[in-house]
Amino acid sequence: MDFDWAPATVHREGVKNYEQLFCYWTPEIGSNPAKVGLMSIPSKEIVRTLNLFSVSDVKLHWQSDASFLCVKVDRHSKSKKSQATSLEIFRVKEKGVPVEVVDTIKDTVVNFAWEPK
């Protein structure tokens, strides 16, 4: 379990009140999937959630002006013998916060970083 604050105030499309955002993830417990979420503070509104299955680890990476959030998901096979990584890109400023998925990467991804401004 982990959380991370957005590095800047996000001006989301269709939202007049500019609030701070933070993202969090919770691990799989039993048959409940792992969850990644975006929450607006101080209203405590859940802006977006994403359910994930077969998760070993999750790392959260904000882009410098908080337009994007990359969630690096390390997944394991059902037998837990092999690992793969996927990148889930949240487009935070767009209405509904759409998520793009970078196809599964079979090689080990050690780190992810956004290009600086």
UniProtKB/TrEMBL annotation:
This protein's GO CC annotations: eukaryotic translation initiation factor 3 complex
Domain Translation initiation factor beta propellor-like, residue spans: 51-117
Keyword annotations from UniProtKB, A to Z: Cytoplasm, Initiation factor, Protein biosynthesis, RNA-binding
GO molecular function annotations of the record: RNA binding; translation initiation factor activity; translation initiation factor binding
Origin superkingdom: Eukaryota
Pfam families referenced in this protein's UniProt entry, alphabetically: eIF2A
Record-given protein name: Translation initiation factor beta propellor-like domain-containing protein
Organism listed in the record: Verticillium longisporum (Verticillium dahliae var. longisporum)
